[in-house]
């Protein structure tokens, strides 16, 4: 059994692991968090880690026209993501983290074709997800929290689409046997959403969203989000520890 020592990369001071971190730790994982925005250096490789989680943030994944990365640590982070896929290291990218995983492995990220998604919502699981070790037991239309203006416009070659929505077609995918990317958030608590709203009042007004109403709807969805995504996080730890295979198969009791 592999030790559940998980490297967590926090890309933005406003988006820590929060509830996802609590769920992973509650399932027995040891989290090692690196904050490159605060000066922490990314490790040169993933030796010594059984899993890898990359969180979201306000930054987008676009490089400048002259090739300058959106954040100085993104090239090294993308190389770690490529290595995790090559090495079949259990990996989870959340929102920006999912976009970086897609971009690093040959997909594309662009401004949302149907505009941003912000607030509580639902995504629809694809049929193929029934055999996925993380998504297999997830409800057909699970509750999620959205906050993104960019989206994964093209999946990487060989990626398996696991969930979609009307506004954004690529909500979740798997790359290889053990790397998952999510376009939505599962780590947020109400305080995190409220903080983002307080710092985005102008943008929310442009979109016709009332911050108090949006935060209240997210708060009302928190229990449902936990019901779905806490077991998901626990299954991720099981994959890290080698207690789950590359496909999910339901247990049939005699």
Write structural notes for this entry.
This protein has six helices and twelve strands. The protein is 30% helix and 21% strand. Helix 1 packs parallel to helix 6, helix 2 packs across helix 3 and helix 4 crosses helix 6. The strands form three sheets. An eight-stranded mixed β-sheet has the order 2-1-3-4-12-11-10-7, sandwiched between helices. A hairpin with a 3-residue loop joins strand 11 and strand 12. The chain is α/β, with parallel strands linked by helices and 254 residues long. The C terminus is likely disordered.
Helicity level: 25-40%
User: How do the helices and strands follow one another from N- to C-terminus?
Assistant: EHEEHEHEEEEEEEEHHH
- Poorly predicted regions are 248-254
State the distance separating the first and last CA atoms: 28 Å
- Give the overall shape: globular
Number of strands: 12
Residue fraction in strands: 15-25%
CATH topology: Rossmann fold
Give me the CATH architecture, please: 3-Layer(aba) Sandwich
Major sheet size, sense and barrel closure: 8 strands, mixed
CATH level-1 class: Alpha Beta
What is the count of helical runs? Answer: 6
Q: Rg, please?
A: 17 Å
Q: Give the CATH superfamily.
A: Class I glutamine amidotransferase (GATase) domain
Q: Supply the helix-strand structural class.
A: alpha/beta
Strand order of the largest sheet: 2-1-3-4-12-11-10-7
Mean pLDDT over the full residue set: 93
Overall structural domain count: 1
């Amino acid at each position: 059994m592999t030790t559940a020592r998980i490297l967590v990369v926090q890309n933005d001071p406003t988006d820590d692991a929060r509830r996802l971190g609590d769920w992973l730790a509650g399932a027995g994982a040891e989290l090692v968090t690196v904050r490159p925005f605060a000066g922490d250096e990314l490790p040169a490789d993933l030796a010594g880690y059984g899993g890898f989680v990359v969180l979201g943030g306000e930054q987008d994944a676009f490089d400048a026209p002259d090739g300058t990365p959106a954040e100085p640590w993104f090239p090294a982070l993308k190389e770690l993501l490529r290595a995790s896929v090559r090495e079949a290291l259990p990996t989870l990218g959340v929102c920006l983290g999912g976009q970086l995983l897609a971009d690093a492995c040959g997909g594309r990220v662009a401004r949302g074709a149907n505009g941003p998604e912000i607030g509580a919502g639902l995504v629809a699981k694809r049929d193929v997800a029934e055999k996925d070790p993380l998504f297999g037991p997830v409800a057909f239309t699970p509750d999620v929290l959205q906050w993104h203006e960019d989206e994964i416009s093209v999946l990487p070659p060989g990626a398996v689409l696991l969930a979609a929505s009307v506004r954004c077609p690529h909500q979740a995918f798997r790359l290889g046997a053990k790397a998952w990317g999510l376009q939505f958030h599962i780590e947020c608590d109400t305080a995190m959403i409220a903080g983002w709203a307080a710092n985005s009042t102008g943008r929310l007004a442009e979109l016709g969203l009332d911050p108090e109403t949006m935060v209240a709807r997210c708060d009302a969805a928190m229990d449902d989000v936990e019901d779905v995504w806490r077991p998901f996080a626990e299954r991720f730890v099981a994959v890290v520890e080698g207690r789950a295979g590359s496909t999910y198969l339901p247990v049939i009791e005699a």
